[in-house]
Write a structure and sequence with these properties.
Strand 4 and strand 5 form a beta hairpin. This protein has a 6-stranded mixed beta sheet with strand order 2-10-9-4-5-6, with no helix packed on it. The chain is mainly β and 114 residues long. 0% of the residues lie in helices and 47% in strands. The N and C termini lie far apart (36 Å).
């Protein structure tokens, strides 16, 4: 499975970003998908997940009300809209199936700093 994350960058606190994850050549619509993140010196943590049809979503408490996961099964793409960003959201963000498979993409760096 190939996973290609994009959309990260440097943003000021309170700002917004939208991450994208393309999964070409994969029976995307059959699988729940997820976003993980790994901050410097910390382990990888699950941030959000979405059901295969997109009808159900779940978030960790620290991002509830600020992040929105969505997907477009016609484009084999999952998104993570991030609003009201905080410095503690700084991390490399990865997408994967849920439960996660063994293959990970390169991730996309999100840095929240003034």
């Amino acid at each position: 499975v190939q996973l290609v994350e994009s959309g990260g960058g440097l943003v000021q606190p309170g700002g917004s970003l939208r991450l994208s994850c393309a999964a070409p050549g994969f029976t995307f619509a059959m699988y729940a998908m997820s976003w993980f993140r790994q901050a410097p010196g910390k382990g990888r943590e699950l941030v959000a997940r979405i059901s295969s049809a997109g009808s159900s979503t779940n978030y960790i408490d620290s991002v509830k009300g600020r992040f929105t996961i969505s997907r477009d099964n016609t484009k084999n793409t999952v998104y993570l809209r991030m609003d009201s960003l905080k410095p503690e959201d700084t991390a490399v963000y990865y997408c994967n199936q849920y439960p996660p498979g063994p293959s990970w993409g390169q991730g996309t760096q999100v840095t929240v700093s003034s």
